[in-house]
Amino acid sequence: MHQLTIAEVIRGLRDRQFSSVEITRHLLDRIQQLDGNYNSFITVTDQLAMAQAAAADARLAQGGAPALCGVPIAHKDIFCTSGVRTSCGSRMLDNFVPPYDATVVEKFNAASAVTLGKTNMDEFAMGSSNETSYYGPVKNPWNTDCVPGGSSGGSAAAVAALLVPGATATDTGGSIRQPAALTNTTGLKPTYGRVSRWGMIAFASSLDQAGPIARSAEDVAYLLTVMAGHDEKDSTSLNRPVQDYTLNLNDPIAGLRIGVPKEYFGEGLNADTAARIEDALKEFERLGAELVEVSLPHTELAVPAYYVIAPAEASANLSRFDGVRYGYRCEDPQDLRDLYMRSRGEGFGDEVQRRILVGTYALSAGYYDAYYNKAQQVRRLIKQDFVQAFEKVDVIMGPTSPSPAFALGAKKADPVAMYLEDIYTIATNLAGLPGMSLPCGLVNSMPVGLQIIGNYLDEARMLNVAHQFQQVTDWHRQHANLASAV
Ligand code: GLN
């Protein structure tokens, strides 16, 4: 049962091949037996899951249940879950039990999906390797000596290890796409504002966006259909009609114009990764698409601009964690200053503190214009690059990540090397555009992801394009050589 895609689980439940209680029990057992190898979950919600599964079975029996009814999923531990600890991968929130659900969680609950638990992540979603988590690193199911990518590494690894068919995730600079690429899963970061951020712990508010990770574009479409939509509780959420993203998957893609940015194939891209991307582009030509060279001339400025904007916003967002109102408080504070200093010093890990320092500096009087304002101007130029490219093409394609998964510890001591992991994903967030990653081959037995960048609110077309690719290739069906359950 653990091999099934979401689409197959939906059919199996409706055909009474198995019940939600049965598949939920099976996956909970697998998590218990196998997740010691991967560390992809921070919290497993056994009792909640079994109760939700029983309720879903009752709803299915009545008929007319929503598509996701009874389907087991997991939530990144950045989404607030009522009554269930929500840590954001941090010691700061190790004891935080929210009294409410994030809008995304509420929507899945309303659809009677079953929550198996909360997945591991880089602390406050800052990282590209899942090594900054207070709960220890996540291991890549394809090779447990390697990282799964980050920050949504727990969601990606849980899906890749066949512990759950799909999971929620978030992407501020690549955190859905890069782990999807490194674990052979399919992930989509929607247009900024497409999915509500309410109840999703904020990292960089002008960049953060939630989306799904699953084992096929079709499954991602099922999950996005539940997640997307306007939310009056999030003033940045877009008030546009929602669509059923599963409806256009089989549209023909002949005549599709694919932009290939030359800046995404330069120095820094692993040669074998480049070859897998070229193979994928040829496959699209066979499907009737046309390749068009485009230029995104400000690409090299994306990482530097991001590492001003994201830390600046993070330093403001994380000021609420002061040892008074939420989460961790140090022992025996001498006075208020000592309470602040030690609560934040002990509650936050190194990477989070580094970002707060950088962000506070960039926003301080006298430096604001030189750094934050300048970075926002660069951001505008990056956005314009894409707007111009989309005058000529329907989608843009390139690598998701410059190389396959690297060894645990390999980049931990070198923040800049780690930051360059997101060289092809960050510009999309700066521009607010949707981006996805899907499996397109292996290099030394490790997965490679193809990135598809779409125009604003063009998620349906991206999923259509990805699904057509997955109809003629089977990379997404390949699984890691997993440890077996007893
Ligand atoms: N790796 C990037 C960072 O560390 C992006 C993280 C994310 O998308 N949440 O900030």
Characterization of the model:
It is globular and about 65 Å long. With 486 residues, it is α/β, with parallel strands linked by helices. It contains 15 helices and eleven strands. The longest helix is centred in the last third of the chain and has 21 residues, at 369-389. The chain has an eight-stranded mixed sheet with strand order 4-6-5-10-11-9-7-8. A three-stranded mixed sheet has the order 1-3-2. Helix 2 (20-34) packs antiparallel against helix 3, helix 7 (217-227) packs antiparallel against helix 15 (459-472) and helix 9 (302-317) packs across helix 12 (369-389). The protein is 37% helix and 13% strand. 57% of the residues are buried. The chain binds glutamine (GLN).
How are the elements arranged and paired?
Elements: H1 6-14, H2 20-34, E1 41-44, H3 46-62, E2 72-76, H4 103-110, E3 114-119, H5 153-160, E4 166-171, H6 177-183, E5 186-189, E6 209-214, H7 217-227, E7 257-261, H8 271-286, E8 290-294, H9 302-317, H10 336-347, H11 350-363, H12 369-389, E9 395-399, H13 415-419, H14 426-431, E10 435-443, E11 446-454, H15 459-472
Parallel strand pairs: 2-3, 7-8, 7-9
Antiparallel strand pairs: 1-3, 4-6, 5-6, 5-10, 9-11, 10-11
Helix pairs in contact: 2-3, 7-15, 9-11, 9-12
The site of glutamine has 13 residues, from loops.
